[in-house]
Amino acid sequence: MNYEIDYEAWSAPKTFGFSGCFRLRNESQFMEAAIRSHLPWLDEAVLVVQPSKDDTTERAYRMAGEDRRIKVHEYPFECDWIDTPGFYAKDPDAPGHMVHMSNWAFTKCRYSWIVKVEGDVIATSTFADIVERVQAQPDKYIYYGRVVLNMAGEMCDMVSWDNPRNGGWDEAVVPNNPAYHFKRQDKWEVLQNPGEGISMGWSGLHMKRCKRGKTDGWNGETYIPFTREGVRSALAHFNRHKMSYPAADDPLGAECIYEGNWIEWYLKNLSA
């Protein structure tokens, strides 16, 4: 297969709709919950699967067989993670680099908007706020960043005290145009944003700290109970000691965070 990126084809006009773009590598633990939680708002879910040591690939194909909207594309190169020697040394525009993989993944998206989401981020019902905003101005060139809460603990019942949420930019909904493409910037893989950027509300739960091997305090972080009071205190502590992120902290304004819908789904399927 040719893994070169055809930028001219990428820039062709596309039908209005939402393509979920999930880059998957060793994501077996949470990928199904992440994908299924986003599906109500997607016209397609593009699963770009990298070589994995777990059953990520098998799960991806099984899900595709159950829902026509799910498309699987295998990227056969094992990319170097950010801030590793290979990430710096290799050509970011060549097959096998994480930057190339991310741009290649975007070219597989057929609709006019891309929901960029990792395989361990579970959507909450307030994701609809961003979708409705896009639907109201479908031709507006805006980068919609997403705020997600950093869940923690083996039973998914904790939240990070030190880093309770992201900055509202890494997970995003963006126009499907090559002007929005990834570049290597310092030690990061950065999605270039030439237009207006808005960091919107609370729309997801990041499960990285619930993964096997990270449940006891990833990077030395402290975890506290996942309750309204716990989230409120963690956010207050975070904003006192670090630079405030652009989106407002409103943990009680998004009651879906406490619905437990996809957390309950996961807990019921721990042995699956």
UniProtKB/TrEMBL annotation:
Family matches, as InterPro entries: Nucleotide-diphossugar_trans
Top-level taxonomic group: Bacteria
Name used for this protein in its record: Glycosyltransferase
